[in-house]
Batch of 3 targets.
Target 1
Amino acid sequence: MIIPARPFILLAQCALVPLLAAQTDTCRFALSGQVLDAHDREPLSYAEVFIQTLGKGAVADEQGRYRIEGLCAATYRVLVSHLGCESIEREVRIVGDLSLDFRLEHHAEELRELEVVRDRPDENVGQSRMVLGRDAMDRAAGQGLGELLSTLPGVALQSTGPTIGKPVIHGLSGNRVLTLNQGIRQEDQQWGTEHAPSLDPLSSDRITVVKGAASVQYGSDAIGGVIITEPVELPRDAGIGGELRGLGQSNGQGGGGSGMLQGGVKGWQGFGWRMQGSGRYLGDSEAPGYVLSNTGVREAGASASIGYRDHRRSATVYYSWFQRELGILRAAHIGNLTDLDNAIASGEPWYIDDFTHAIDAPRQTAQHHLLKAEAGYAVTERSRLVATYGYQANDRQEYDRRRLGRSATPALDLWLATHTADAVLKHWIGGRVHGKAGISAVFQRNSNIPGTGVRPLIPDYRRESIGAFIVEHFPLSEKLELEAGARLESAMLRVRKYEDDNTLITPERDFTNAALTLGANWTVRDSVRMRFNLGTAYRPPHVSELYSEGLHHGAAAIEEGDAGLGSERAIKGTIDLQGSWLDGRLAIDATLHASRIDGYIYLRPDGTRLTIRGAFPVFAYTATDALLCGADATINLKLTGRWSWRIRGSTVLARDQREDEWLFLMPADRVDNTVMARWGELGEWRSLELSATSMFVFEQQRAPVGVDFTAPPEGYHLLGLAAAISRPMGNGDLRIGLQATNIFNAAYRDYMDRFRYYADARGFDLLLSVRYAFGRTA
Amino acid sequence: MKRASNPIILALLAIAALVACKKENDDHQHDTNEEELITTVELHFHQVGGGEHKHFTWRDIDGDGGNPPVIVADTLTPGMSYEVSMELLNESVSPTDSITSELQAEAAEHQFFFQVAGADVMVTYNDTDGNGDPLGLVTIWTVGAASSGTIVVTLRHEPDKGAPGVSSGDITNAGGETDIATEFPLVVE
C-alpha cells in the first residue's frame, strides 16, 4: 500500500506549490455556489451567472455549481438565468470569498412545458443518484456503457475480457440492475455475464445512475440500482444544431465517431426532430507484452426522433438501432478443468497471434431495435397524463469454435421481443402534495431460432406482467420534503422446454410482488443537502436460473438451474450527503448504503461430474439471504483558483448469511485521486484543462472459500493523464481532448474480469477525441 | 392540431412495419440433438503381426448428466505390440454419427495425446495429418512387463502442433480446446 501511495503524494505536493504562492492583489475574491430550482431544489445545469457591472460571468456545471473569480471588495449586481426560468437579479456585497446559492422560479406560462422537460423518469427526492453529462460523453466514443459508468464512485465493471463490460452498482449487476433506455425498460438478455448492454451511450446526452432499490418507480429488477439514459429534449423552434465527435485510440488501433443533428421546423412551432448515428471499430486489444488475440469490436448505432409539444399536448416517436459484433479472447475458449488449470498456471494466454482487426470465432453479434411512441396530455391545469408504448427486439448470436465449418453457424441464436406499455398520471392533491400514479404492462417472448445444432442454453418462454404504482411527494417545509410510494406487480412465466429425451415440458410460474419506498430530502442549509431513502425491490428469477442446464465453456463449469426458486426480495437503505463548505472550495458527495436480499440467487459449487471431456465442477443456482453494505464518496477540493484535487473511493461488503461466507465476485475497494488544473482564457482558446489520475484497486480480501478456481489477483495501480482544450470556431464550439490511460503499461488482472484466468488486462492506451458542436447545440 | 398528429402516426406505422416483422419462431421446430456431441470413445487393439484383439470403451450415451459413463478396458498382454485405432461416435442419434470421419477431414486441427501413469506401456503415433504432423487416430502401443496404472486419452481441437514437444506427444504446450479427456484403467498381465 505504500508504493502506490507515492505518486499521488507527489502530485499533491506539486499541487500545493501554487497554493503557497497565492495571489495577493486586492481583486482576489471568488463568488461560488449552486443554482437550484426553487420548486424542488434540483440543480439547474448550465445556468448562467453574470455580473453586469463587470461584464463577466460563469456558466454553471451539470450540478448547477458556478464560480466567478477575480472579484474585488465591492457591491455587484448579479443576473442569474436559466432556460425556462424567471431570471433574477441580486445585489451581492463582496468582502471576501462568498458562497451563495440562487433559486430560480419557472416562467409561469412555461410551467407546463417544464413539466415535459422534467418528464425525465427519475424524480425520486430521496434517491441517491449520479449524473454523467456531456464532458463524460466525449470519452464515450471509445467506451461501452459499462466502462463509461465505472468511472463513477459506487459503480464497478464486471467484464469478460476487454470487449464485454457490464456495470455493477453497489455490488450488484446483470438482472439486478435495471436499464431504462429512453424511459423504456431495456430487455436485452442481461442474464448472461458475457452479455453487455446493447445500447449506444451516445444516443443520449445524459446518463443518470440511481443507486438504490427502486422497484416502485421502475418495476422489477431494480435491486441494485437503475441506469437511465435520458430522453433528449427536442427543440421546439426553427433552427438547426448539431454535434460531431471523433475518437482515435492506440490500443486496439481504431476509434469511433458520432454525429447528431437536431432542429425545429420553420412555421411549425412546437415541432422538433433529432437524428444521431455513431460507430466504433477496434482491433485486438493489447496487454503489456502480448496481443489479446480476437478481441476486436465493431459497433454501429443510429437513432431518430420527432416530436411535437404545445401547452396541452405532446407526442414523440423515437426509434433506435444498435448493432455490435465482438470477438471473445481466443485463449479463453477452453475444453475442461485441466485446460483451465493449465491456463492459470502458465500465466500467459496459450493463443497469441499477430495484431489484427479481424474477428474470428468465438464471437458474438447482437442487434437491438427500440421503437418508442409517447403521448402526453394536460388533463387539467396541473395534472398530466403520459402514455408510452415501447417495442424492443433483441437479436443475439454466439459463435463457438466448432468442427467441420460449423463455426459459421451460431451455437446460440436468440430472438427476444418485448412490448411495454405504460400510462402515468402526474397530479396534485391540494396545493402541496404532488406525485405520479401509473400502470405498466410488459409482454415478452423469447425464441431460440432453430438450426444451431446445439441444445438451447435457455428455453423458449413468454413472460407477461402487469403492475400499478403510486408515488407522492409531501413538502413539509422549505427544507424538508418527504416521499412515499408503493407498487404491486404480477408476472406470469410460461416456459417451453425440451428435456434431454426430447419430451416437451411447459411449466408455468406466477410471481406477485409488492414494493414500497420512503424518502426524504433535507436541505440542511443552502449548500448542504441530505437524501434518505428506504426502498424495496423484487426480481422474479430469470428463466436461466430456473431451467438452464449445461456446460459453460468459458467458465469450465456445468451450471444447473432450479425450477423451484422464488423471487428475490430486497430492502435497501441509502443516505446521501451532498454539500459544499469553505466557501465552495470543498465539495463532498457521499453515499452510505445497506441492503438485505432475501432469496438472493447465486451459483453454488455442487460437486463434480465426469463427462467425456473430463471432470467438471457443477454449480447449482441456489437461494440464500445476502447482506450488502458499503460506502462511496467523491471529495472535491479547490486548492487555488486553478488547481483542484478530487478523491473518489468506494467499498462494498457482501455476506452470504446462510453460509456465513462472503459473496463471490463483489468489486474490490478502490480509490482514485485526480489533480486538475484549469486555465480560463489562453489567447484564442477558451479553456484548458490538465489532469493526472491515480487509481488504486485493492486486492479483494473478501472472497468466499472454495468457489473460485484461483485466488483473487493482487491489487493494482494505474496512472492516467488527460488534457482538454476548447475554443469557439465558426458558429460553434471545438473541443479537443487527449487522454493516456495506464501510462506505465502495468500488467494487472482485475478480480471482476472473468478472463483474469487467461490473460492480463489492457495495457497503455492513448486516446485523442474531438468534438465540434454547432448551431443551437453549441 | 389535427394536422399535427397525422405525420406522427404515419411515421410510427412506417417504423413499426420495418421493425416488427422480422422473425418469429415456429413452435414445432427445435434443436433436439447436439450435433457435435461425442458419446463414445472406442479403442480397437490389433496385435502387430498376430491375431489378438482387445477393446477399450468409454460410453456415455445420454451425454453430460443423467446416467454416469460406462468404462470398459480389456487387460493387455505383457511383451505384446498393438496397433490401436480409435473410433469416436455420437450414439445419441440414430443412425449413429461417426465423429472419426470429421476428425479425418480436419486432421490438421486435431491431435490425440496419451498420458500413461504407472503401467509399463509406451504409445507412439502411427499416422499423420496433411502437414506431416501426428494425429493419433492410429497408434502403436508397446507393452512391457506386468504392471497396472491408468491412461488418459485426450483429444485437442486446434492445438499448436508446432509448439515444443507436441509432435512427440507431450501435451504440455499443446494449447487448444479439449474435446475429450477419458481415463481408462491400464492393466498388463
Target 2
Amino acid sequence: MSAPVLDVRSLSVEFESTLGTIHAVRDLSFSIGEGETLALVGESGSGKSTAAMALLRLIPNPPGRISSGAVLLAGRDLTALSEADLRGVRGREMAMIFQDPMMALNPVYTIERQIGEVLRLHLGLSKSEILAEVVELLRLVGVPAPEERARQYPHNLSGGMRQRVMIAMALACRPRLLIADEPTTALDVTVQAQVLDLIHGLKEKFGMAVLLITHDLGIVAETANRVVVMYAGRKVEEGTVGEIFADPRHPYTRGLLGAAKWEEADGDLLREIPGTVPSPFEMPSGCSFAPRCAEAIPLCRSAMPELKDVAPGRPVRCFLAEGRGHG
Amino acid sequence: MRRLATFWLRYRRNRGAVAGALALAVILALALLGPILYPTDPFDMVGRPFSLPFDRFPLGTDVAGRDILAGILNGGRVSLLIGVLASLSATIIGVALGAVAGYYGGRIDDLLMRTTEFFLCIPSFVLAVVLVAIFQPSVVTVTVAIAVVSWPSVARLARGEFIAHRDREYVQGCRAIGMPDWEIILLQIMPNALPPIIVVSSLMVATAILTESGLSFLGLGDPNLVSWGYMIGVARTVLRTAWWMAAIPGVMILLTVLAINLVGEGLNDALNPRLRKR
Amino acid sequence: MADGASRVASAGGAPILEVRELVKHYPIRGGLFSPSQMVHALDGVSLSVARGETLAVVGESGCGKSTLARCIIRLEQPTSGHILLKGADITVLAGRPLRELRRALQIVFQDPYASLNPRWSIASLIGDPMRLHGLAARGERRGRVASLLETVGLGPEFMDRYPHELSGGQRQRVAIARALAMQPEVIVCDEPVSALDVSIQAQVINLLKRLQRQFGIAYIFISHDLSLVKHISDRVAVMYLGQIVELAETRAARRRVLHPYSQALFSAAPVADPQAAAARKRIILAGDVPSPIEPPSGCRFHTRCPYRQDRCAREAPQLRAVEDRLVRCHFAGEPGFPPEVPA
C-alpha cells in the first residue's frame, strides 16, 4: 500500500471546564488510504466528532486544545501549521460536510456565490470560469437543472438538495480527504440512500479518502472499508468492515452490533448494553467500559487495557479479546 | 429550601449582582428605617436655606431650609414604593394578558395585541403625564399611570414566551395526560416563561422610579409627599450655585437604578436553566 | 375482500382503537397578496389496533405520520373522519369527557429532552397523571411513583431528581413511566428511540416490549426506521403523502412488499450486515417527496415511481385488497409486479 492520505498519530484533545479537564479524545491513531472509506463509529460522548474537528484544527481554543499527537495529511503535519497555511489546506486538500447543511450554508448568498467563493479563494478562477465550474459541480452531485439552481438560495432547496450542494462545495477543489460528519442523519431514508450513493461514486471517481463519522452501523456496513470503534474518547477496536461485523472482539462493539441487528431478534428481546456512557467528569478507574460490561473481570476495574493486535491490523482494547474468537 | 440554596449558589457567581443586591438592601433599609431613626419632617423648615452638607445638617438644607437628609430618606420610601407597586401591577396585568393571548392564540390574541400596539404607539412618558394631569396627582394615580404605560411591553414579552412554549412537547404531553389549561398555563409554562419576565420587570422598577422622578420633577408628584424627583425639581433653579442639592437625590436615583439593574442581570443568570450546567 | 386482507385491515380480534377515513388539512396563511393554501397532511387514513398489538406506521418526513399520532390522541382536531376507542366515537369529545379519555390513550414523544418540563421533579412529573385523574391519594402517590420507576428500570432514588440530571435513555424511561401512570390501553409511540444512542435504543425497545407483554398495551409505533419496525411490529402501515399505500402483516412485509414505494423504502434502509448489504441492490428513488400543499394528481407516488404508466397520473388508485394485504396501486397483484429488485 502506498503512503496513507491521512495519518493520525496519538491524537489527544482536551477541554478545560470549571469542573476540571475533559479528555475528549485520548491517544487516537488511525490512517486512511487513497480511495478508502474509514468509518469512525461511536455514540454521543465517544469523541468521534471532536476528533474530526481536531483534524481540521477547528477546536475552539480556549477552552479546547490538541494536547498531543500529529495529524499528517499527505505527509504534512497539520498540527504544526500556521493559521494562514492551514487556510490553504481547509477546503482545498481536506473538506468537511456536516449533518445539518443549513448550518454550513449561508442563507443570504446564492448557491453560485457560496460554491464560487471556494473556487475563487483556492483556485483563483475568473468570474465566467467560476459559473461554468459551479454548474459542472452541481451536475456532478446530481442536482437537476443546475444552471437554475445555482442562482437560488439555500432555503429554496430541499434537505437532500442542500446536502448535495454542500457536497459540491466540499468537492470544489477535489480534496484528497473528505470528512463526512453524520452526513445523512437529518435526511429521509430514500434520500439518505441517494446521498450515500453519491459519496461512494465520487470517492471511486476521484480516489478520495473518506472519513465517515456515524453512529449508524447500517450505514457503516453499506459504505465503509474499515472501521474504528470509539468509546469514551478512546479507540477500542479497529478492523475491516468484514472483520468488525463478522468477528467483533470488543464487548462494546458486540453490544452495538447486537443492538443494531433488530431484525435477527424476531419477537425476542434485543441484546442490550446496560447503563449509560460515563460522564467525562466521572470516568471509572480501569477500563471505561467495565461498568457496562457483562464479562468484566476484577482486572478491568483497576487497569485500562492497552490496544493489542489480535491479528494484523486488528487492534482491540480489551484484556479478554484474544480468547474471544468467533461466536 | 434546597432550591433557594441552589438559587443563591448560582446568583452568587455574578459578583456585580451581589454588589447590586447589597446596595439595594442598604437603600431599602434606609428608606424603611431611616424616617424612624431620623424623625425630622422633610417639609419642616429646620434652618437657614442653602446650608452646606456636613455643616449643621448631615446633607445640608434646600432652597426653603428643609433638611435634605430627611427628604432623601422619606423620598426613598415614596420612590421605591411607587416603583415596586407600579411594576408589580404592570407585570401582573401584562403576564396575565400575554399568557392568555399567547396560549390560546387566534381572536383573543389579535384583540390583545392590537390593544398593546395602541399603547406602545404613544410615548409612554407623555401618556403618564396626561393620565396624572387628568386624575390629580397622588401616590395612587402616579402608580396607576406608570403601570398603565408599562404593562404592554410585559404583555408582548409574555405572549412571545407562551407562543414559544405552547407547542413544545412537554406542553403537549401535559395536554395528553388531561391537565386543565389553567394548570398548564400557571404551573407548566409559567415557570419556564417567567425568568425573562422577572428580569424585565425588575428592570422596570428602575424605569418606574425614573418615570416617577420625571413626573415629580414636572410638579406632577403627590403634593403631600417628598420624592427624589421632587427634590431635583426644587433644586433645578439653583443648579449653578448649589449643585449638590440636585446631585444628592440624583445620585440616589442613579444608585438605585444601577443596583436594580445589577440584580436583574443576576436574576437572569441564576434563573436561566440553560446556563445551569456551566 | 380477500380473507387474509380483511384480517389485516381490521387487526386480529376486536380493535381497541379504530381510525376511519381520517383527514387533516391545515391552512397556511398566505402573504398579503397570495391566497392561503392547504397542507394535505392526512387524506383518508383508516387503521385499527387490537389489545396487545403493535401497529407500525412508517414513512418519510412529510408523510403525515406525526400528524396522525397527534390526531389520534386528540392533540389536534382532525378535519374529518372518526376515531373510535372501544367502539365509542371520541372524535368530537371536549372538556371533561376528553380529559377522561386521556387515561386510555397516551403518547411517548421522540425527544425526551423536550417532553419533560425541566422545572418539575421526576416524582411530580410521574405523579401528575395520578393526581389529575384521582388514581392515587396524595399519601400513596410517592409509593406508586416508586413502583412505576421500578417498572421502567429506574430506582426510587430518581424520584427527587430533575430531568436535566438524567441521561436521554433515563429521561425516556421517565416519559414512559408517566404514560404508564394512567394505566393506558393504547400508547402512541412517536419515534420513541430515534433521539437516543444506539446502545440505549435497545434498552428502551426491550422495555416497551416487556411492558406490552405485562399489561397488554396496544402500541401505535410511528417510525422511519424500517429495521426497527420490522423487529417490533405485528402489522405495518406504509404512508406516503398523507395516505396509507400499503398495510400488511409485518411477517408478510419482510418477505415481500407490493407497493413500489414500500419496495423502494425497504430497499433503501441500511442493513447492519456488510455481506447482505453488498449482495442486495437498492432502488434509489429520484427526487424528493413532493410538497403536501399540492400533492401530485392521480397516484401520489407517480412522480417518483419507477414503474409509472400514463394511467397513474390521471387516476388515483384506491387502497384495495391484494393477496394478504391492502395496497394502493393500480398494478399490485398483477403477476410479476412490482419486479423483483435486480440483483
Target 3
Amino acid sequence: MRLASGVLGAVFLLSAGPAAAQGISNDVVKLGVLNDQSGVYADLAGQGSVVAAQMAVEDFGGTVLGKTIQVVSADHQNKPDVGSSVANQWIDTEQVDAIVDVPTSSVALAIQEITRRKNVAHLNSTAATTDLTGKACSPTAVHYTYDTYALANGTGRALVQQGGDTWFFITADYAFGHNLEQNTAEAVKKAGGKVVGAVRAPFPNNDFSSFLLQAQASQAKVIGLANAGGDTINSIKQAREFGITQAGQRLAGLLVFLSDIHSLGLETTQGLTLTTGFYWDKDDETREWSKRWAERMNGRMPTMVQAGVYSVVMHYLNAIKAAGTDDAKTVVAKMKEMPINDFFAKNARIRQDGRMVHDMYLVQVKGPQESKGAWDYYNILRTIPGDEAFMPMEAGNCPLVQEAATKNGQPAGGAR
Amino acid sequence: MRLYWIALAVAAVAAVFAPTVLYPVFLMKALCFALFACAFNLLLGYVGLLSFGHAAFFGFAAYATGHAAKVWGWNPEFAVLAGTAVATGLGLAFGALAIRRQGIYFAMITLALAQMVYFFSLQAPFTHGEDGIQAIPRGELFGLFDLRNTETMYFFVLAVFAGGLWLIWRTVHSPFGQVLKAIRENEQRAVSLGYKVDHYKLTAFVMSAALSGLAGSVKALVFQLASLTDVHWHTSGEVVLMTLLGGMGTVLGPVVGAFLVVTVQNYFATFGAWVTIIQGVIFVVVVLLFRRGIVGELNALWLRLRRRSVPAATTPPAAARPGVEPAAHEPPPRKRRVGEGS
C-alpha cells in the first residue's frame, strides 16, 4: 500500500512538470477538508465542515465532467506543521485537487504557500486573517466567508450608527488582538465615534475582572472584545457576572460564532452585538439548507463558515464544469469570473485578490424570553453591503492586483 | 559486536531507501523529532533531569533560523548554525538557573523559563505572533545542493540526524557520560568522589539544548515555517511522551518513540478527534505494561534470552569480556519509576 503510494507519488512528480491544462487530472476530483476536529475550533468548523462539503458534492451529483468527486478530511490539530505535512502528502501522493476550510491563521498561511507552489486550489472558509488576500494572496486561493476586517469593521461602524459612539477595548495582547482592535477603532472613528480607552489582557487569560472593571469605569457605551475563542467566552461570562450588560453598556464581540452563543447560552450572551456572514434563520432558502445539514449533525445549526464551505465547494465544482479542467489556476480564475447566487450569498463575487465579497449581517443576540426555541438566537439588525463590509482591494497590498494593474496600465480595480 | 554493525548497516540502507517507500516530508519530520527526543533523552535518561521546557530551545531555534534565512537571506548552513547558537545560549542561561534545584523544582523552573520564551515569541514583532514566520526559503546548502528538491533535503536532514545521534552516542559512552550516569544514580556520591556535579550537569544541559535547537532549526527549513506550536509547552510534553514511549536511557528509544508519535499524528490525522485519544491510550498502555519503553523492554528481553543461553553455549561471547561491552547497551537500573515527575 505504502509502496504503491510511493511509486504513484514518484510517477506523479515526474508527470507534474508540463501538466496539461485540460481535462481532469488523475481521473478524479478530490477535495481535502483540513481543519481542527478536536480542539477549540472543532464546533464552529470541524466535522460540520466535512458534512457541508459532502453535501455539496452530493447535491452537485457526485461527478463533474464524468469523473467522480471525492471528499477526504483530516485534523490539523491547529499545528502548522501537522497541517502542512498532511497537505503535502495529500497533494503529492493522493492527488488532492483542492484544500478546503483550514481554520487557524498560521496553518492557513502555511497551506497558502504550499498550494501556491504546487498549483492546488485553496478554498478557505474559516481562517480569519486578512493576509490571505493581502500580502500573502495567491492565484490559486479564495478566502470565502469572512475575515477580521469584515467583522471588526461591520460591528464597529454599525454600532456607532446606532448610537454606540464611545468605545472601550479589551484586547488580547498579541498580533491578532492588536490587529482586531486597530481595525475596529478605525471603523469607529470613521463613523464619528470615539475610543475612550483600551486595555491589553494577556493571552490566554482566565480572569478578566480587572479589565472589565476598567471598562465599566470608562463609562463607554460599547465594550469591544478584541479577542477570540476561550478568551471571548470568559470575558462575556464575567461581564455578565459583573452586571455590566444589565447596567446598560453593550458588549461587542469581534470574533464570535453561532456555536459560541450556543455553548454560552442566551442568559449569558443576550444583548451581545456581532457581525456574521450567514444566519440559518434568515430566509426560506437558508432554513431549507440548514435543516438538511442539521439532520446529519444531530440537530445542530450551521455556523457561517460551515455554510460557507458548502457554498465555496459548489462554486468550485461549477467552475470546474465551466472551465473544463481541474487545473487550479484556471479554475480559480473561472471562480472569479462567475457570480455567486445561492442560499449563502446573493450577487456575490470573488475579487482579483481572492476575497469573496458578499453581504454581512449585524446581529444582536436575543434574550431567553424572546427566543422561540433551540438555535433561535439572533435578531438581524442590519444588512451590511459587501463593498462596505470588506477591506477595499487597494488597501490589502496584494501583489497579484498590483501586477495586473501595471500590466494593463490601469489602476487596480474589481475583477468586474 | 558484529550484530551491531549488521544492524547499523541495515539501518543505513533502510534510511537511504526509505524515501522511495515512505513519504519524504513525513520522514524528515520524524527525523527532526527523533533528534529532538534524543537530545532530550541525553538529559532525562542519562543525567536524570526532567526538563519541561525543551520546546523553548526547539521552537526558538526555529524562529532564529527562519529569521536568518528569510529576512537576512543567510545560506541554510549558516541559518541552521544561527538557530543552534541561539538555542545554546538559551540553554546556558536556563541551565545555569535550573540545575540548582532537583526533581520537580527543576522541572518547574524549566517550564517557567520556557513559558517566558513562549510569551516573548507571541509578542516579538519578528516572530509574527500567531501567524509565525512563513515561506522560509530552503536555499542551497554550501551553494551546491539545492534543498528545494525534496530528496536533497531528506539527505541533508538524515545527515544532520546521524551526526547528532553519533554525538550523543559518543557522549554517553565517554568517561564524561559515565560521570553523568553516576550523577543520575547517586549525586551525593559523585560529589564525594570529587566531581564538580554542577559543571557536568550544566554541560549536559547545554548540549541537550544545542541539539534540540539543531533539530528545531532543521525542522524550520523542512516545513519552511516557524510557529508558536514549536515553543508551546505541548511540544515539551510531546518530547517527554516520545522519550518515555521509546524507552528513556536508551540511545535508540527516543528515535522509536518519535517515529511512533509522528506516525500517529500524520497517518491517523484522518481519524479526526481520535488522534489525541489514540496517543493517550498508547501512553497509558506503555506506562501500565512496559515501563522501560519499547526499546527498553526489547533490550531487557534480549539480555534475558542471552543470559539463558549462556550456560548452553560452548564459547560464551559475553562472558569473555565480562561487563565491558554489554554494559554499554544494558538499560540503566530502574531505581526511579517511569511515570515519576511527568
